[in-house]
Design a protein that fits this description.
mainly alpha, 9 helices, 79% helix
């Protein structure tokens, strides 16, 4: 459970489409106007993860080797994501016009967000190993508890973007730390289950 919480935190707090959009929303619309966007990400991801987890259980029952293949693919994807995070350039501030993303838009965005889909599949293949409904719901619950506070940090960072995230040294340190945590959160699970 501790490894799952670390995995959920690192996956939720590292840069990706959701977090970068929240940072821009915080910078352009402020924290309170970004709350529907944050809630849509948090609840939308949990809903998507549970649905994917329940579907994956059937695949794993039909083809047991698919679980091992998916774990290896997930670990490779996480290594690639860690590399991309570690080498990411600081985001540029952009002035957004219009309104912040609405709750339902953020929920629907999870279904086209490659990082969110990869997170859900990886989490379910690594941590819902017994393929039970209870383990799928546990993964969803842990992500639900960790995701909203984690993504909220990006909206708060957006509010402070000019002072905090435009400094390349700080961004490199942050990205390097997140990449390392991402790799470390996957290694114990792979070592124990493969």
């Amino acid at each position: 459970m501790k490894h799952l919480a670390v995995f959920a935190f690192v996956m939720s707090v590292t840069p990706g489409p959701n977090n970068l959009m929240l940072m821009a929303s915080g910078a352009n619309f402020g924290l309170w106007r970004s709350v529907p966007h944050m809630l849509g990400i948090g609840l939308g991801f949990v809903f998507m993860a549970i649905l994917l987890g329940l579907g994956l259980m059937q695949v794993f029952e039909l083809v047991p080797a698919a679980l091992i293949i998916l774990k290896v693919a997930a670990a490779l994807y996480m290594a690639f994501l860690a590399y991309k995070i570690a080498t990411a350039a600081p985001p540029k501030a952009q002035q957004a016009k219009g309104t912040p993303m609405r709750f339902y838009q953020a929920v629907l965005f999870q279904w086209v967000n490659p990082k969110a889909i990869g997170m859900a599949i990886s989490a379910m293949s690594l941590y819902a190993v017994d393929q039970s409904v209870a383990s799928v719901l546990l993964v969803g619950l842990v992500f639900g508890c960790v995701n909203l506070p984690s993504v909220s940090l990006w909206a708060i960072l957006g509010v402070q973007m000019q002072r905090v995230l435009t400094n390349p040294t700080r961004m490199r340190i942050f990205n390097g730390g997140m990449a390392l945590l991402l790799l470390l959160s996957v290694i114990p699970v792979l070592r124990a289950e493969l």
